[in-house]
Amino acid sequence: MAKSLSLTIGLRFLLAKSDNKFISFISLTSMLGIAVGILVLTVILSAMNGFERELTSRLLSVVPHAEITAVTPPLQDWQGVIEQAKVFENVESAAPFININALIVKGNELKGVQIRGIDPQIQTQVSDIKSFIEPAAWHQLNSANGSVVLGQGIIADLGLKVGEKVYFMLPQPNKQGRLRAPKTIALTLAGSFSFGGQLDYSQAYIHLSDAINIVGEAHGVSGVELKFIDIFDSTSTIRNVANSMNQYLYISDWKRSQGHLYNDIQMVKFITYIVLVLVIGVASFNIVSTLVMAVQDKESEIAILLTMGLTQARVMRIFIVQGMLNALLGCLIGSISGYLLATNLSSIIAWLEHVLSMQFLSGDVYFIDFLPSLFKWQDLALLVASTLVISFIATLYPASKAAKIEPAKVLGQ
User: What pTM did the predictor assign?
Assistant: First the structure.
């Protein structure tokens, strides 16, 4: 009964028209401040979730989760290395590779690339590159016939065409480490791939057998690529795998090569949570101001309620209810608008790009050329819960001031 009475009176005080229009204005701004804060933060968190999803499902579907390479190349008995690695629970699969640094020669133009020799049949177990390579090019890559698949960026920059010969210059160091005249090889361009970002401008793929013939290592490879079940446990897993081997090895995981992207996403999310506290804190100051002025405006009504036997605790509840109802309305408006905007963010940005004739994210720089979004209910729940807690704390001071009003002084004036 006491709670319902406090709720009823608090709701009446909130909806009642006041002669002081400034109180209504401050109340409205506090509600809109909370709504805008939740709206903006929901959109930012959804965008960061989208980037994280694209990082794990797109970039890390082609970028090795981890690599093991020999200290003194080539890596011998790579089949044994793969079998030893698969013993670990987090290792899903493994595949051999050969890396060759080269320069593409096209007339007077030179472009640095890394040629990666792979076994297409085994490679599909550790990456999803088949989804990004043209079907005809993938078919050619499956046979060791001197074919090469280049990134679309390389093909566009050099004006290459499918079916033509592409010439590569390979450095040839001697035993003293000095470079001799480079070796030139010719490969047939089978097609292209499009991963997005810098990989399209720096990567080439050939069959593992062709790579072995080029480097002249009949029984070894550059290293072994590993795919993990839990990609975020890559660092400890690769260390455990390497420690189990009976030879010295170099190890590297995706956190070393691409980890800056993931760290940037996590940093932005962390900053967003800090901004959450600041934004809601500013909105809460408005709640404090609103309730303080409301207490002053309703002093006579409060005094009458106290003389009628209403306890100080119930008076406090009245203004706590009034402040919390204001916060709840802001949360409701912000949550609905934030959900609608976050779930349609990608299409809205695409429409803006079309209207403004500009691109917000360039595929030449980033690993995607669109703004992703992934709305999560738990993020919205955290935002709303944090807002309500901060708002509740903000109501305590003006509510306690209302409870301490002395009826004799107020009514005796």
Answer: 0.71
